[in-house]
Write a structure and sequence with these properties.
Elements lengths: L5 E6 L2 E5 L5 E4 L12 H23 L3 E13 L7 E13 L3 H15 L1 H7 L3 E10 L2
Parallel strand pairs: 5-6
Antiparallel strand pairs: 1-2, 2-3, 4-5
Helix pairs in contact: 1-2
Length: 139
């Protein structure tokens, strides 16, 4: 296997996941557990945002865009019945900077969606993913 993670049960509904480089995060259930960590299902939303965000920032830096703040919000809908799989995710990208070229942002997002982000590529086969982009001039 190319990579391997380890997830250990701590107590109750709490688990700690550790990646192949030793980085860890706490997961828990807000309903059944102590709400002491991230919900595993929401990690998919966070993973999508992080993956696309790294791609988009990298591309915008190469295009010499003056980004001063960047935020990605990902929301989604799940089936009401178990296994409550995600059916739709919406990615909202907010880019703040100085004289940001909207075409450069659009191109960066499209490249992330179609060529670079493995999380998007994995989810897109199972979940409808929509997006919106907002660009604001920084003060």
């Amino acid at each position: 296997m190319e990579r391997e993670t380890i997830t250990r049960w701590v107590h109750g509904w709490q688990f700690v996941g550790t990646d192949s480089k030793g980085h860890s995060l706490v997961m828990d259930s807000p309903n059944l557990g102590d709400n002491s960590g991230l919900e595993p299902a929401e990690l998919l939303l966070i993973g999508l945002a992080g993956c696309m965000g790294m791609d988009v920032i990298s591309i915008l830096k190469k295009k010499q865009q003056k980004v001063v703040d960047f935020e990605i919000r990902v929301g989604g809908d799940r089936r009401p019945d178990h296994p409550k799989a995600w059916t739709h995710m919406h990615v909202e990208l907010l880019v703040r900077g100085h004289q940001i070229d909207p075409a450069a942002v659009e191109r960066a997002v499209v490249l992330s969606e179609t060529q670079y982000c493995p999380v998007h590529a994995t989810l897109a086969g199972c979940v409808e993913i929509t997006r919106s982009i907002r660009i604001e001039e920084a003060e």
